[in-house]
């Protein structure tokens, strides 16, 4: 799905004039601001944000189910007063084969989000009961590894692909045997400061697609890995730990979840290798650091 196709779907959705459920126009859709283009095309239109998903012909019916679940999660968070994005329309639309969801636009950020802001929101999420009326999935952190490696194809060394598959299987089994320190329950699933928006009334949680019910430690390992691999300053990590109230690195299972996430991160980069030389170089750097058992080698975006 490219931007032009997403705008066609947006025009057909009839939600881009600022009022849900009233007729929009192709002109209004064309004037909408594209905020992101990835798994979804995300447009800002007046006081709304509209997410256009990939066609279910290419992604299967689970794409529509995922959109519906994201709306249910938003309602669940609202019921429990967790600051998060709010849906402007309770139903997911299916427009020319594409799932479309409509959200209230958040006011402009007053400052960048910091790790401590994320920790405060995670504290609220981790105190939530399991929702009723719909089921949260497990956090399938390693579920995309095979698909990403297949997309990489001949661009990567087959030995590296086999190595990551072996790591995936080993860490999946080890994770299944973990004894958690925290109660199992709702998690965000992609707990990074980029998924927190600091509006005039404080931090707001965004991007609910990875919301799951699993080990709460999944959300905390992300920041520990950010400290060790992605250059998060030690004082910023310490602020995260202080705001949350516990350092996941004290838990004996931390290395297992970290290893699983590192494996997934390497495989995710591999899919970009066929068309992006920088991604291929970064993939090789990451795999080499795993083979060498060096947990401090810096990883970079590409």
Helix-strand makeup class: alpha+beta
Q: What percent of residues adopt helix (DSSP H or I)?
A: 40-55%
Low-confidence stretches: 18-25
Rounded to the nearest angstrom, the radius of gyration is 20 Å
| Main beta-sheet strand count, sense and barrel state | 5 strands, antiparallel
Mean pLDDT: 92
Number of strands: 9
Determine the N-to-C terminus distance.
22 Å
Spatial arrangement of strands, main beta sheet: 1-2-3-5-4
The best one-word shape is: globular
Organism: Streptomyces endophyticus
Pfam families: APH
InterPro entries: Aminoglycoside_PTrfase, Kinase-like_dom_sf
Protein name: Aminoglycoside phosphotransferase family protein
Description of the molecule:
With 302 residues, the chain is of the alpha+beta class. Helix content is 44%, strand content 14%. It is built from 11 helices and 9 strands. A 5-stranded antiparallel β-sheet has the order 1-2-3-5-4, with helices on both faces. Strands 6-9 form a two-stranded antiparallel ribbon. A two-stranded antiparallel sheet has the order 7-8. Strand 4 (93-95) and strand 5 (98-104) form a beta hairpin. Helix 5 packs parallel to helix 9. The longest helix is centred in the middle third of the chain and has 19 residues, at 158-176. It starts with a helix and ends in an 11-residue tail after the last helix. Residues 47-253 form the Aminoglycoside phosphotransferase domain. This is Aminoglycoside phosphotransferase family protein. InterPro entries: Aminoglycoside_PTrfase, Kinase-like_dom_sf. Pfam families: APH.
